[in-house]
Amino acid sequence: MRNPLPRPIALAAGATTTAAVLQRAAFLRHCVLALVAAVAAVGSFGAHAQAFPTKPVTLVIPFAAGGPTDLLGRALAQSMGASLGQTVIVENRAGAGGTVASASVARAAKDGYTLLLHHIGMSTAPSLYRKLSFDPLKDFEYLGQVADVPMTVIGRPDLPAKTPQELISYLKREGKAVNLSHAGLGAASQLCGMLLQQAVGVESTTVPFQGTAPALTALIGGQVDLMCDQSMQTVQHIKSGKVKLYGVTTRERLKPLPDAPTLREAGLKDFEVVVWHGLYAPKATPAPVLATLNTALKAALKDPALIKRLDDVGVVVVKPELQTPEGLSTQLSSEVDRWGALIRQAGTYAD
Protein backbone atom coordinates (compact mmCIF):
# COMPACT_ATOMS: atom_id res chain seq x y z
CA MET A 1 0.00 0.00 0.00
CA ARG A 2 1.34 3.48 -0.83
CA ASN A 3 2.45 5.67 2.05
CA PRO A 4 -0.43 8.08 2.78
CA LEU A 5 1.88 10.66 4.30
CA PRO A 6 3.15 13.49 2.08
CA ARG A 7 6.80 13.80 1.29
CA PRO A 8 8.66 16.59 3.14
CA ILE A 9 8.57 19.85 1.23
CA ALA A 10 11.95 21.03 -0.01
CA LEU A 11 12.59 24.71 0.71
CA ALA A 12 13.55 26.88 -2.20
CA ALA A 13 16.87 28.69 -1.98
CA GLY A 14 16.48 31.98 -0.21
CA ALA A 15 13.18 31.07 1.45
CA THR A 16 12.52 33.11 4.52
CA THR A 17 12.54 31.56 7.96
CA THR A 18 8.85 32.37 8.43
CA ALA A 19 7.91 30.54 5.24
CA ALA A 20 9.92 27.53 6.33
CA VAL A 21 8.15 27.38 9.67
CA LEU A 22 4.74 27.57 8.00
CA GLN A 23 5.63 24.84 5.56
CA ARG A 24 6.86 22.55 8.32
CA ALA A 25 3.73 23.23 10.40
CA ALA A 26 1.49 22.33 7.47
CA PHE A 27 3.45 19.14 6.93
CA LEU A 28 3.16 18.11 10.59
CA ARG A 29 -0.56 18.89 10.65
CA HIS A 30 -1.06 16.67 7.60
CA CYS A 31 0.88 13.88 9.30
CA VAL A 32 -1.25 14.08 12.44
CA LEU A 33 -4.49 13.98 10.44
CA ALA A 34 -3.31 10.99 8.45
CA LEU A 35 -2.31 9.17 11.64
CA VAL A 36 -5.70 9.83 13.27
CA ALA A 37 -7.47 8.50 10.18
CA ALA A 38 -5.33 5.38 10.19
CA VAL A 39 -6.04 4.70 13.87
CA ALA A 40 -9.78 5.18 13.30
CA ALA A 41 -9.69 2.76 10.37
CA VAL A 42 -7.94 0.11 12.48
CA GLY A 43 -10.48 0.59 15.27
CA SER A 44 -13.35 0.24 12.84
CA PHE A 45 -11.88 -2.93 11.36
CA GLY A 46 -11.41 -4.37 14.84
CA ALA A 47 -15.02 -3.68 15.74
CA HIS A 48 -16.32 -5.45 12.62
CA ALA A 49 -13.88 -8.31 13.04
CA GLN A 50 -14.79 -8.83 16.70
CA ALA A 51 -15.84 -12.44 17.30
CA PHE A 52 -19.50 -13.36 17.85
CA PRO A 53 -20.82 -13.92 20.44
CA THR A 54 -19.29 -11.74 23.16
CA LYS A 55 -22.22 -12.05 25.58
CA PRO A 56 -25.04 -14.52 26.39
CA VAL A 57 -27.54 -15.40 23.66
CA THR A 58 -31.27 -15.55 24.42
CA LEU A 59 -33.32 -18.45 23.04
CA VAL A 60 -37.01 -17.55 23.10
CA ILE A 61 -39.49 -20.41 23.58
CA PRO A 62 -43.06 -19.46 22.57
CA PHE A 63 -44.71 -21.75 25.13
CA ALA A 64 -44.82 -22.20 28.88
CA ALA A 65 -41.99 -23.78 30.86
CA GLY A 66 -42.22 -27.53 31.22
CA GLY A 67 -43.87 -28.16 27.86
CA PRO A 68 -42.37 -30.23 25.02
CA THR A 69 -40.84 -27.32 23.11
CA ASP A 70 -39.41 -25.92 26.34
CA LEU A 71 -37.78 -29.26 27.16
CA LEU A 72 -36.26 -29.46 23.69
CA GLY A 73 -35.14 -25.83 23.87
CA ARG A 74 -33.34 -26.26 27.17
CA ALA A 75 -31.49 -29.32 25.91
CA LEU A 76 -30.51 -27.45 22.73
CA ALA A 77 -29.46 -24.33 24.64
CA GLN A 78 -27.05 -26.30 26.80
CA SER A 79 -25.34 -27.93 23.83
CA MET A 80 -25.27 -24.78 21.66
CA GLY A 81 -23.84 -22.77 24.56
CA ALA A 82 -20.90 -25.16 24.79
CA SER A 83 -20.21 -24.69 21.08
CA LEU A 84 -20.58 -20.89 21.15
CA GLY A 85 -18.55 -20.43 24.29
CA GLN A 86 -21.36 -18.36 25.80
CA THR A 87 -24.41 -19.11 27.91
CA VAL A 88 -27.64 -19.55 25.95
CA ILE A 89 -30.46 -18.31 28.15
CA VAL A 90 -33.92 -19.81 27.67
CA GLU A 91 -36.75 -17.30 27.92
CA ASN A 92 -40.39 -18.45 27.86
CA ARG A 93 -42.82 -16.01 26.23
CA ALA A 94 -46.11 -17.87 26.05
CA GLY A 95 -49.27 -16.51 24.48
CA ALA A 96 -51.55 -16.69 21.45
CA GLY A 97 -50.28 -20.00 20.15
CA GLY A 98 -46.68 -18.84 19.93
CA THR A 99 -47.39 -15.64 18.00
CA VAL A 100 -46.46 -13.33 20.89
CA ALA A 101 -42.94 -14.72 21.04
CA SER A 102 -42.57 -14.89 17.27
CA ALA A 103 -43.55 -11.25 16.85
CA SER A 104 -41.13 -10.14 19.56
CA VAL A 105 -38.20 -11.95 17.96
CA ALA A 106 -39.10 -10.59 14.52
CA ARG A 107 -38.74 -7.07 16.02
CA ALA A 108 -35.59 -7.85 18.04
CA ALA A 109 -32.16 -6.41 17.31
CA LYS A 110 -30.62 -7.94 14.19
CA ASP A 111 -27.44 -9.01 15.95
CA GLY A 112 -27.89 -12.73 16.56
CA TYR A 113 -28.36 -12.40 20.31
CA THR A 114 -32.11 -13.19 20.20
CA LEU A 115 -33.25 -16.45 18.60
CA LEU A 116 -36.56 -18.29 18.32
CA LEU A 117 -37.20 -22.01 18.62
CA HIS A 118 -40.65 -22.77 17.25
CA HIS A 119 -42.45 -25.88 16.11
CA ILE A 120 -45.05 -26.72 13.50
CA GLY A 121 -47.12 -23.80 14.82
CA MET A 122 -44.94 -21.41 12.82
CA SER A 123 -46.56 -22.80 9.67
CA THR A 124 -50.14 -22.70 10.96
CA ALA A 125 -50.14 -19.13 12.28
CA PRO A 126 -50.85 -17.45 8.90
CA SER A 127 -54.05 -19.50 8.58
CA LEU A 128 -55.15 -19.61 12.21
CA TYR A 129 -54.89 -15.87 12.88
CA ARG A 130 -56.73 -13.29 10.80
CA LYS A 131 -54.47 -10.53 12.16
CA LEU A 132 -50.80 -11.47 12.39
CA SER A 133 -48.14 -8.86 13.15
CA PHE A 134 -45.36 -10.82 11.46
CA ASP A 135 -44.85 -12.95 8.37
CA PRO A 136 -43.17 -16.32 9.04
CA LEU A 137 -41.96 -16.45 5.43
CA LYS A 138 -40.50 -12.93 5.28
CA ASP A 139 -39.54 -11.67 8.74
CA PHE A 140 -36.95 -14.25 9.79
CA GLU A 141 -33.62 -15.72 8.86
CA TYR A 142 -33.71 -19.51 8.87
CA LEU A 143 -30.92 -21.27 10.77
CA GLY A 144 -32.08 -24.85 10.32
CA GLN A 145 -34.40 -27.60 11.44
CA VAL A 146 -33.68 -29.16 14.81
CA ALA A 147 -35.72 -32.25 15.66
CA ASP A 148 -38.92 -34.15 14.90
CA VAL A 149 -41.17 -35.02 17.83
CA PRO A 150 -43.76 -37.79 17.38
CA MET A 151 -47.28 -37.47 18.74
CA THR A 152 -49.12 -40.00 20.87
CA VAL A 153 -52.88 -40.51 21.11
CA ILE A 154 -53.73 -41.11 24.74
CA GLY A 155 -56.91 -41.48 26.79
CA ARG A 156 -58.01 -41.30 30.41
CA PRO A 157 -57.13 -44.49 32.32
CA ASP A 158 -60.71 -45.76 32.46
CA LEU A 159 -61.76 -45.02 28.87
CA PRO A 160 -63.75 -48.07 27.65
CA ALA A 161 -61.83 -48.54 24.39
CA LYS A 162 -58.83 -50.84 24.81
CA THR A 163 -57.24 -50.91 21.33
CA PRO A 164 -56.78 -48.38 18.50
CA GLN A 165 -59.52 -50.10 16.51
CA GLU A 166 -61.88 -49.94 19.49
CA LEU A 167 -61.03 -46.25 19.92
CA ILE A 168 -61.98 -45.51 16.32
CA SER A 169 -65.32 -47.29 16.82
CA TYR A 170 -65.83 -45.45 20.11
CA LEU A 171 -65.23 -42.06 18.47
CA LYS A 172 -67.67 -42.82 15.66
CA ARG A 173 -70.31 -44.06 18.07
CA GLU A 174 -70.05 -41.33 20.71
CA GLY A 175 -69.34 -38.32 18.45
CA LYS A 176 -69.51 -35.03 20.33
CA ALA A 177 -69.92 -36.84 23.63
CA VAL A 178 -66.15 -37.42 23.52
CA ASN A 179 -64.11 -34.58 25.06
CA LEU A 180 -60.82 -34.03 23.27
CA SER A 181 -58.43 -31.76 25.16
CA HIS A 182 -55.58 -29.67 23.75
CA ALA A 183 -53.07 -27.08 24.92
CA GLY A 184 -54.66 -24.09 23.18
CA LEU A 185 -55.13 -22.60 19.73
CA GLY A 186 -52.16 -23.32 17.51
CA ALA A 187 -50.66 -25.91 19.85
CA ALA A 188 -49.43 -29.16 18.33
CA SER A 189 -52.00 -31.05 20.38
CA GLN A 190 -54.81 -29.06 18.76
CA LEU A 191 -53.47 -29.65 15.25
CA CYS A 192 -53.04 -33.37 15.84
CA GLY A 193 -56.55 -33.56 17.28
CA MET A 194 -57.94 -31.84 14.18
CA LEU A 195 -56.23 -34.39 11.95
CA LEU A 196 -57.48 -37.28 14.08
CA GLN A 197 -61.09 -36.14 13.80
CA GLN A 198 -60.71 -35.65 10.05
CA ALA A 199 -59.12 -39.09 9.60
CA VAL A 200 -61.85 -40.86 11.57
CA GLY A 201 -64.62 -38.74 10.09
CA VAL A 202 -66.06 -37.49 13.37
CA GLU A 203 -66.51 -34.23 15.26
CA SER A 204 -65.63 -34.41 18.95
CA THR A 205 -66.01 -31.72 21.59
CA THR A 206 -62.67 -29.97 21.90
CA VAL A 207 -61.62 -28.56 25.26
CA PRO A 208 -58.79 -26.00 25.14
CA PHE A 209 -56.43 -25.43 28.07
CA GLN A 210 -53.71 -22.86 28.67
CA GLY A 211 -50.78 -25.16 28.09
CA THR A 212 -49.95 -28.84 27.82
CA ALA A 213 -49.52 -29.43 31.55
CA PRO A 214 -53.10 -28.55 32.59
CA ALA A 215 -54.54 -30.40 29.58
CA LEU A 216 -52.60 -33.51 30.51
CA THR A 217 -53.51 -33.15 34.18
CA ALA A 218 -57.19 -33.02 33.25
CA LEU A 219 -56.78 -36.21 31.21
CA ILE A 220 -55.00 -38.05 34.01
CA GLY A 221 -57.72 -36.93 36.40
CA GLY A 222 -60.48 -38.16 34.10
CA GLN A 223 -62.03 -34.74 33.44
CA VAL A 224 -61.54 -35.22 29.67
CA ASP A 225 -61.49 -38.34 27.52
CA LEU A 226 -58.75 -38.05 24.96
CA MET A 227 -55.66 -36.10 23.99
CA CYS A 228 -53.05 -36.08 21.25
CA ASP A 229 -49.67 -34.75 22.36
CA GLN A 230 -45.93 -34.92 21.87
CA SER A 231 -43.99 -37.92 23.12
CA MET A 232 -41.59 -35.70 25.08
CA GLN A 233 -44.47 -34.91 27.39
CA THR A 234 -46.35 -38.22 27.45
CA VAL A 235 -43.87 -41.12 27.50
CA GLN A 236 -43.36 -41.01 31.27
CA HIS A 237 -47.11 -40.96 31.94
CA ILE A 238 -47.69 -43.81 29.48
CA LYS A 239 -45.03 -45.97 31.11
CA SER A 240 -46.40 -45.25 34.60
CA GLY A 241 -49.92 -46.21 33.54
CA LYS A 242 -51.42 -42.80 34.31
CA VAL A 243 -52.86 -42.61 30.79
CA LYS A 244 -53.94 -45.18 28.23
CA LEU A 245 -51.95 -45.28 24.97
CA TYR A 246 -53.77 -45.98 21.70
CA GLY A 247 -51.07 -45.33 19.14
CA VAL A 248 -48.28 -43.16 17.77
CA THR A 249 -48.52 -40.83 14.80
CA THR A 250 -45.32 -41.79 12.96
CA ARG A 251 -44.72 -44.29 10.15
CA GLU A 252 -42.57 -46.45 12.41
CA ARG A 253 -42.98 -47.50 16.02
CA LEU A 254 -41.08 -45.54 18.65
CA LYS A 255 -38.02 -46.88 20.46
CA PRO A 256 -39.26 -45.95 23.94
CA LEU A 257 -42.71 -47.46 23.16
CA PRO A 258 -41.94 -50.51 21.02
CA ASP A 259 -45.28 -52.22 21.72
CA ALA A 260 -47.38 -49.22 20.72
CA PRO A 261 -48.88 -49.54 17.22
CA THR A 262 -48.88 -46.71 14.74
CA LEU A 263 -52.27 -45.30 13.78
CA ARG A 264 -51.49 -46.38 10.24
CA GLU A 265 -51.39 -49.96 11.53
CA ALA A 266 -54.76 -49.36 13.16
CA GLY A 267 -56.33 -48.55 9.81
CA LEU A 268 -55.81 -44.79 9.47
CA LYS A 269 -53.56 -45.22 6.44
CA ASP A 270 -52.87 -41.55 5.70
CA PHE A 271 -52.49 -40.45 9.30
CA GLU A 272 -49.06 -39.12 10.11
CA VAL A 273 -48.10 -36.15 12.29
CA VAL A 274 -44.57 -35.21 13.29
CA VAL A 275 -43.95 -31.99 15.17
CA TRP A 276 -40.91 -30.49 13.50
CA HIS A 277 -38.94 -27.69 15.15
CA GLY A 278 -36.87 -24.93 13.58
CA LEU A 279 -34.44 -22.26 14.78
CA TYR A 280 -34.90 -18.66 13.61
CA ALA A 281 -33.19 -15.24 13.86
CA PRO A 282 -34.56 -11.78 12.98
CA LYS A 283 -34.46 -10.84 9.30
CA ALA A 284 -31.28 -9.06 8.15
CA THR A 285 -29.05 -10.56 10.86
CA PRO A 286 -25.50 -10.37 9.39
CA ALA A 287 -24.42 -13.37 7.35
CA PRO A 288 -21.25 -14.09 9.41
CA VAL A 289 -23.36 -14.21 12.58
CA LEU A 290 -25.85 -16.57 10.95
CA ALA A 291 -22.99 -18.81 9.83
CA THR A 292 -21.64 -18.98 13.40
CA LEU A 293 -25.07 -19.83 14.79
CA ASN A 294 -25.68 -22.52 12.17
CA THR A 295 -22.29 -24.07 12.95
CA ALA A 296 -23.21 -24.12 16.64
CA LEU A 297 -26.59 -25.69 15.84
CA LYS A 298 -24.98 -28.47 13.81
CA ALA A 299 -22.40 -29.09 16.53
CA ALA A 300 -25.15 -29.30 19.17
CA LEU A 301 -27.11 -31.82 17.13
CA LYS A 302 -24.03 -34.08 17.07
CA ASP A 303 -23.70 -33.99 20.87
CA PRO A 304 -24.10 -37.59 22.12
CA ALA A 305 -25.62 -36.39 25.39
CA LEU A 306 -28.28 -34.39 23.54
CA ILE A 307 -29.04 -37.25 21.15
CA LYS A 308 -29.41 -39.72 24.03
CA ARG A 309 -31.61 -37.36 26.00
CA LEU A 310 -33.96 -36.91 23.04
CA ASP A 311 -33.88 -40.54 21.95
CA ASP A 312 -35.18 -41.62 25.35
CA VAL A 313 -38.48 -39.81 24.68
CA GLY A 314 -38.80 -40.70 21.00
CA VAL A 315 -37.45 -37.43 19.59
CA VAL A 316 -35.39 -37.73 16.40
CA VAL A 317 -32.64 -35.26 15.47
CA VAL A 318 -33.13 -34.31 11.82
CA LYS A 319 -30.66 -35.31 9.12
CA PRO A 320 -27.67 -32.99 8.48
CA GLU A 321 -29.08 -31.73 5.17
CA LEU A 322 -32.12 -30.41 7.07
CA GLN A 323 -30.01 -28.62 9.67
CA THR A 324 -29.58 -25.79 7.17
CA PRO A 325 -31.33 -22.53 6.21
CA GLU A 326 -32.50 -24.19 2.99
CA GLY A 327 -33.83 -27.22 4.85
CA LEU A 328 -35.92 -25.09 7.19
CA SER A 329 -37.12 -22.73 4.44
CA THR A 330 -38.39 -25.60 2.30
CA GLN A 331 -40.12 -27.26 5.25
CA LEU A 332 -41.84 -24.09 6.41
CA SER A 333 -43.14 -23.18 2.96
CA SER A 334 -44.59 -26.63 2.31
CA GLU A 335 -46.19 -26.84 5.77
CA VAL A 336 -47.81 -23.41 5.41
CA ASP A 337 -49.63 -24.76 2.36
CA ARG A 338 -50.51 -28.10 3.98
CA TRP A 339 -51.99 -26.74 7.20
CA GLY A 340 -53.63 -23.78 5.52
CA ALA A 341 -55.88 -26.12 3.55
CA LEU A 342 -56.81 -28.16 6.65
CA ILE A 343 -57.52 -25.11 8.82
CA ARG A 344 -59.69 -23.48 6.17
CA GLN A 345 -61.64 -26.71 5.88
CA ALA A 346 -62.12 -26.89 9.65
CA GLY A 347 -63.07 -23.20 9.87
CA THR A 348 -60.89 -22.62 12.93
CA TYR A 349 -59.66 -19.04 13.28
CA ALA A 350 -58.65 -16.52 15.91
CA ASP A 351 -58.90 -12.74 15.68
Automatic annotation (TrEMBL):
- Keyword check for Acyltransferase, yes or no: no
Source organism, top-level taxon: Bacteria
Q: Which residues form the signal peptide?
A: 1-49
| A Pfam family reported for this protein in Swiss-Prot or TrEMBL | TctC
Q: Which UniProt keywords apply?
A: Signal
- Sorted alphabetically, which Gene3D superfamilies does this protein's record hold? Bordetella uptake gene, domain 1, Periplasmic binding protein-like II
Q: Which family does it belong to?
A: Belongs to the UPF0065 (bug) family.
Question: What is the name attached to this protein's record?
Answer: ABC transporter substrate-binding protein
What is the species of this protein? Acidovorax kalamii
